[in-house]
Write a sequence for this structure.
């Protein structure tokens, strides 16, 4: 058995809160996507209506969770489930492809046909996914990195327009990468895992506009590896339904404590409602490390409300309270337009954020 364990895993909080991820990472349990491949699907995938496909998806999600519970508690092994002709994962691939014809992968709900690409949506990504780079990332949170790094895949394009984006060359240019499909993505994932990656980390930009390629990639991947969703969480409810039974660990961003700041800095409407809803869904479905980037001068309007919300709604999550904000992209170019965030957070601001987290009993030290 391979072991990806480092001394960090002796920390009880980390071990308990990331138990499923730990087990998949060490090949003690199968990743969720491997289980979805063994759940039989009973639709005519070519001709049945969207409604019929979603009904079947709901039925299979219930079945999946019964099987998952048996596997978690050692009442069942993956090998006891026979290969099937048409699986729950195949159903997800088909639904995602159909969603592209009137795209509602995220809450912009542009309803554009991304196959036609006559009119692009807010992310400006057409039906083709592009990957800027992929590598073993050692800058992620310690449980995700270990000795082998996080197998991080950077998709071009994003659903947000953050004025301080550190990856703006990728996020704001959906053509900045090589075109890939599900088969090529599976090869990339296989290469990352077989060369020691602890997980497959879908990021960008933003993975959400590439949901169809990501789920299809899982269809062609046969090796065990935890799937990690590293996202701004502006995902639609339908996309969350496609994701919850294939993602082993969530790495969501919770940036803003109110909609005004979200609109001002990321040009995003309905931020708090959408992102908090999706955090709750993710928290109910699996292991989670929530990232909160502390913005200077935004402790009272963003950091404190976000931490308070997390403590009340996602009590099992680990939280990375991030101090690495620096003025980048448009803020660096035009600091006079964004005077409140035109500097790094101070030592006092970070201490105040940590003290507030302590007062709420938030577990952040192993990952911050
Ligand atoms: S992913 Fe979101 S932003 Fe992009 S086209 Fe679809 S709904 Fe619009």
């Amino acid at each position: 058995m391979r072991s990806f364990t480092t001394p960090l895993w002796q920390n009880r909080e980390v071990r308990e809160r990331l138990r499923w991820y730990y087990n998949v990472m060490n090949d003690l349990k199968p990743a969720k996507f491997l289980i979805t491949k063994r759940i039989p699907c009973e639709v005519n995938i070519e001709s049945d209506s969207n409604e019929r496909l979603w009904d079947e998806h709901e039925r299979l999600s219930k079945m999946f969770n019964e099987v998952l519970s048996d596997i978690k508690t050692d009442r069942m092994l993956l090998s006891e489930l026979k290969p099937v002709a048409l699986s729950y994962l195949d159903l997800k691939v088909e639904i995602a492809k159909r969603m592209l014809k009137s795209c509602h992968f995220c809450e912009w709900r542009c309803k554009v046909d991304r196959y036609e690409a006559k009119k692009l949506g807010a992310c400006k990504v057409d039906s083709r996914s592009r990957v800027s780079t992929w590598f073993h990332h050692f800058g992620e949170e310690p449980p995700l990195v270990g000795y082998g790094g996080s197998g991080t895949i950077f998709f071009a394009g994003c659903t947000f327009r953050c004025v301080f984006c550190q990856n703006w060359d990728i996020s704001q240019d959906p053509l900045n990468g090589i075109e890939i499909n599900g088969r090529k993505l599976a090869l990339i994932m296989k290469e990352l895992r077989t060369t020691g990656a602890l997980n497959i980390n879908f990021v960008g930009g933003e993975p959400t506009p590439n949901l169809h390629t990501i789920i299809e990639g899982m269809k062609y991947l046969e090796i065990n590896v935890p799937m990690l969703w590293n996202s701004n969480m502006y995902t639609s409810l339908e996309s969350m339904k496609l994701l919850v039974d294939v993602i082993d660990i969530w790495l969501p961003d919770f940036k803003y404590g109110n909609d005004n700041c979200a609109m001002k800095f990321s040009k995003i409407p309905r931020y708090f409602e959408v992102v908090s809803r999706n955090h709750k869904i993710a928290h109910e479905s699996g292991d989670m490390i929530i990232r909160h980037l502390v913005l200077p001068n935004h402790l009272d309007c963003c950091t404190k409300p976000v931490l308070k919300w997390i403590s009340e709604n996602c009590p099992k999550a680990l939280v990375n309270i991030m101090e690495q904000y620096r003025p980048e992209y448009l803020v660096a170019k035009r600091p006079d337009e964004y005077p409140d965030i035109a500097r790094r957070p101070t030592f006092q601001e970070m201490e105040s954020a940590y003290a507030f987290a302590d007062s709420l009993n938030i577990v952040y030290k192993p990952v911050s």
In short: The pocket of iron/sulfur cluster is lined by residues 103-106, 108-110, 112, 121-123, 125, 159, 208-209 (CB under 6 Å). The mean pLDDT is 96.
